[in-house]
Design brief:
It is a single chain. Strands 1-2-3-6-5-4 form a 6-stranded antiparallel sheet. A hairpin with a 6-residue loop joins β5 and β6. The protein has a domain of 107 residues. It has 229 residues and is of the alpha+beta class. It contains 1 helix and 6 strands, in the order αββββββ.
């Protein structure tokens, strides 16, 4: 009996041990699979994270790049605007200078015209007065001893046709901005001298009206009024 029981126990142990070892092997072989399955999500997560970070980083890079592009686009526009404004300012300044120069030229021309007109009118007036008084003085000379209103005495020994002479444009003296000529002991002058005054002999007389005149010796009709110093 004992031998029978021992043999049965040995059979049971022999059966159970291989089964137990097989189960352990199955468990051990299953564990790496589980580890792999657990590792896969982690790896997937780790792989997904950089992609997400890259996707998140791309908008930031795009946002950073946008202002730079805008700045780069804005720079040429600003430069063009500045260049245009400078050109406009230069054109305005040139136009103003041209206008100022034109105005100055016009003013100078007007001044010269007015001066010329004044000189012409003065000469004409003097010639008209001189011719009128000269014609009278030819027949109506002042008498010796007669004085003008300033006390200058007329003397035939110093004045008249018998005491003619030639005068030069640069002769005489420059006094108080006028050209004066010495004659008969006095200094005579006029606002303007006609050309014939320097082209022929001239003499000075005092008319019956008490005024002094210069007369051309070769043509007594040529005469103009002078003043005595």
């Amino acid at each position: 009996m004992k031998s029978v029981i021992i043999g049965m126990l040995l059979l049971i142990v022999g059966v159970t041990l291989p089964a137990f070892s097989q189960e352990e092997r199955h468990e051990e072989s299953a564990k790496p699979a589980q580890h792999e399955e657990q590792a896969k999500p982690a790896a997937k997560q780790e792989q997904a994270r950089p992609q997400k970070q890259e996707q998140q980083a791309k908008p930031a890079k795009q946002e950073q790049a946008k202002p730079e592009k805008q700045q780069q686009q804005a720079k040429p526009q600003k430069q063009e605007q500045q260049a245009k404004s400078q050109e406009q300012n230069q054109q305005k300044a040139a136009q103003q200078q041209a206008k100022g120069q034109q105005q100055e030229k016009k003013q100078q021309q007007q001044q010269t015209k007015t001066q010329q007109n004044q000189q012409k009118s003065q000469q004409q007036h003097q010639q008209q007065q001189a011719t009128g008084h000269g014609q009278q003085s030819q027949t109506q000379y002042a008498r010796s001893g007669q004085k003008d209103r300033y006390g200058h005495e007329y003397n035939e020994s110093h004045f008249g046709p018998n005491h003619h002479g030639r005068f030069e444009a640069n002769g005489g003296r420059e006094y108080n901005g006028r050209r004066e000529y010495s004659y008969g002991g006095y200094w005579f002058y006029a606002g303007a001298y006609p050309p014939w005054f320097y082209q022929q002999d001239v003499y000075f007389i005092m008319g019956a009206d008490g005024l002094w005149y210069a007369v051309a010796y070769g043509d007594p009709s040529l005469t103009f009024q002078v003043y005595i110093e």
